[in-house]
Write a structure and sequence with these properties.
Distance between the termini: 51 Å
Helix content: 55-70%
Structural class: mainly alpha
Mean pLDDT: 89
Order of helices and strands: HHH
Radius of gyration: 15 Å
Number of helices: 3
Number of domains: 1
Shape: elongated
C-alpha cells in the first residue's frame, strides 16, 4: 500500500505524533499565559519533553 515511500511508514507516524504532542504542549503553555508562537517552536522541536515541561510550568503572572 505505502511501499513507494522512501522511509519506513512508522517513521512518518512517529513524526506526526511528535508534532501533535508539540502542538498540545504549545496550547497548554499558552493557556498558562506563555507566548503561543515561542511554545509552538519549542513544542515542535521538543515534542514530549516540551509537553512535560508545559504541564509542570507555573502560570505566567506577568500578563
Amino acid at each position: 500500500m505505502m511501499s513507494h515511500l522512501p522511509v519506513d511508514p512508522a517513521l512518518y507516524i512517529m513524526l506526526n505524533l511528535h508534532c501533535l504532542i508539540g502542538g498540545i504542549a504549545a496550547v497548554v503553555a499558552w493557556r498558562k499565559g506563555y507566548p503561543l508562537g515561542t511554545w509552538m517552536i519549542w513544542g515542535l522541536i521538543g515534542g514530549t519533553i516540551a509537553l512535560v515541561y508545559a504541564l509542570l510550568a507555573k502560570p505566567n503572572s506577568s500578563q
